[in-house]
Design a protein that fits this description.
Elements lengths: L3 E2 L2 E2 L12 E2 L6 E3 L5 E7 L5 E5 L14 E5 L4 E6 L2 H7 E2 L5 E6 L4 E7 L1
Parallel strand pairs: 1-4, 2-11
Antiparallel strand pairs: 3-11, 4-10, 5-8, 5-11, 6-7, 6-10, 9-10
Length: about 120
């Protein structure tokens, strides 16, 4: 199944209303459109700790793969993940998928929002 988009909400100088959440989909996983500096809000709605993984396809010139960025979020908690500057373009963008940033989850007990910065 195709990955589910998490829309990136632009933040205005005069304020921006909180966008609707994108519900977690562990069957299809998620993506962000790459190339925009953003903050991803990751809310764990389960009764236990969960990981959200920002997939890194980056491999060094010497052939060493960069480990994925697994972010642990406690039960009922929210973490903000910043994807900014060259790290977005070089480390996270999937060259074979329109330079999207892939986000993998192993439970659907998530709510996501993303904000352009």
């Amino acid at each position: 199944m195709p990955r589910v988009n998490i829309p990136i909400e632009p933040v205005a100088e005069l304020g921006t209303s909180q966008p609707a959440v994108t519900a977690g989909n562990a069957t299809s996983d998620h993506y962000l459109d790459g190339g925009t500096d953003c903050i991803v809000e990751c809310k764990n709605t389960s009764a236990g700790s969960l990981d959200v993984t920002f997939v890194t396809p980056y491999v060094t010139a010497g052939g060493i793969a960069l480990a994925d960025n697994a972010v642990t979020v406690a039960a009922g908690a929210v973490k903000l993940v910043r994807l900014k500057g060259s790290a977005v373009r070089v480390f996270y963008q999937q060259s074979g998928d329109s330079l999207r940033i892939w986000i993998d989850i192993n439970s659907s007990s998530w709510e996501f929002r993303a904000y352009a910065i």
